[in-house]
Structure formats: structure tokens, C-alpha cells
Amino acid sequence: MKRLKITFNAPIVLGFVFICFIVTLLNTFSMGHITQKFFMTYHSDLKDPLTYLRLFTHVFGHDGWSHFIGNASYLLLLGPMLEEKYKSTKIFEIILITAFITGLINYLFFWNIALCGASGIVFAFILLTSFTGFKNGEIPMTFILVTIIFIGQQIFDGLTVKDNISNISHIVGGMVGAFAGYNLNKK
Questions:
Q1: Residue-wise DSSP of 58-98
Q2: How far apart are CA 60 and CA 161, in angstroms?
Q3: 174 partner at 20 to 30 Å CA-CA among 25, 59, 93, 166?
Q4: String of b and e for 80-94 (b: at least 16 CB within 10 Å)?
């Protein structure tokens, strides 16, 4: 009988979720100060080097354990399949691009809103997943339905619900995932 072993099957996704876990743990011990200083993007002085760092690192910070668990669940569910299909380098690029674009849009257009969390990346993964069966010249029905359901809900919520959720980062993340899914699969 062959022995079972644990494999590190999706190093980028697992590493990303592990960093988010550590940051959330540090945030708990620091009563929010760590996240606010290093893992949350907001309109800050352009002379401050942390302003540029936070455009990328805001995706590691979460507003508590339920926020982290919600994002980590989706990342761990979708990420390994995507990393297997597209390889670690592409998934890393998608995470970086999503972090930068969502951070930059928040900085430029939402001056009074601080942004943290991996929700934009979650939405990028959701839309990217709907392209896994894509063939050139076809638009998968799953992509259409996922777009209508997930992005439509974000637009609706953004217009009608006043909460602490950044619907724009979900929409932008979804657009990054859709763009990446189309370009990675059109060959």
C-alpha cells in the first residue's frame, strides 16, 4: 500500500493565503495598527514611500477574521486549479496586477476610503475560472452567467447598499480576471 503524503500543490496561492493569515494575526495583536500602516491603501502623501508599497500590500490586510476567512476560502477553492492550469508565474502576475490596479483606482478616485483585503483577487479568480473551458471564437456560457451574477451584484450593491465593502475593487478584480482569462485561453 502506498503512503499518502501532503503536497504543496499551489505555492503562490498557499503562500499568499499564509501571508494574509500572518498579517491578520499581527493586525489582531496590534489592534489594527499594522494593517493601517502597511496593509491598507488610502490617499496619503506621495512623498511617503509606504504610499507606493501599500498599492501592492493592501491585498494582504483584512478587517478581521471573518473577512480573511471569506477571502481565503475562495482563494483556496479556486486558486489551486488556476495555478495548475496557468502556472505559478501567471497567477503571481495576476495577483500583482490586480493589487496594483485596485490600489491605484482607490487612491485616485476614492480619497476618503481606505482599502484592504484580497476581494479583488478573489473576483479575478472567479472570472478567470469561468474561462477554463474557453475555446477560440467562443464565449463560455459560464463566463456570461458568472459575470451577470457576481459583477451585476457588485454594481447593484455599490449603488444601493451603504456598507464597508469596496464594490469597485470587486468589479476591477473581475475585469482583470476576465481580461487575463480571455488572453490566456485565446490560443
A1: TTT--SSHHHHHHHHHHHHHHHHHHHHHHHHHHHHHHHHHH
A2: 25
A3: 25
A4: bbbbeebeeebbbeb
Q: Which residue has the cell 484592504?
A: 116
- pLDDT tens column, 120-137: 999 999 989 887 777 766
Angstrom CA distances, 179 to 29, 130, 159, stand at: 38, 12, 24
The yes or no reply on domain 11-185 and CATH 3.20.20.70 is: no
Cell of 8: 504543496
DSSP state of 41: B
Residues found in the chain: 187
Using alpha carbons, select from 31, 9, 19, 91 the residue that is nearest to residue 57: 19
Quick: pLDDT tens for 32-49: 899 999 999 999 999 999
